[in-house]
Amino acid sequence: QAEALKYADILIDKEPQNPYFLELKGQILFEGGRFREAAQLYQEALSFKPQSDLFKLNYAEAVLAGKPTAQELKKLIALLEQAGRNGAYPSAYLHLGRVYADLGHLAEADYFAAEYNYALGEKEIAQRQLKKALKQELRSDIKLRAKDLEAKLRLDKKKDTLF
Length: 163
Fold this sequence. Notes:
Elements: H1 2-14, H2 19-31, H3 35-48, H4 53-65, H5 70-84, H6 91-102, H7 106-119, H8 123-134, H9 140-162
């Protein structure tokens, strides 16, 4: 790890504003269990490439791997929502579920677990988790999304019975 960090530092010295080099060093630190330092580098990489869903996800994973405060968890919600918006990174939903669970919002945690499993194609598991979420008090914006997911699952079930 020390040698990998040395090479990452050489790259960063040559191109200090290259977000990919910052991300590389963050990944090395993350894999070495240095989560806070990794999070700082991912955050710096995001400052140069703020639209990168991968950098958002990496940053969130590093924060979650440490011992995040409630304030840090709340900040992750918007970031993970953005990272998961186009469906390319289903793990964003998994991490959102963890964030909400850590904040004590179990209905929302169940909803995002359902979204995660739906994205993975695990429709039966998603259905069970969604049913559990809908039995609880959801935030109104998430309740609308839960109803949308419920409709998608119903439609998928109809399609499955036709074929």
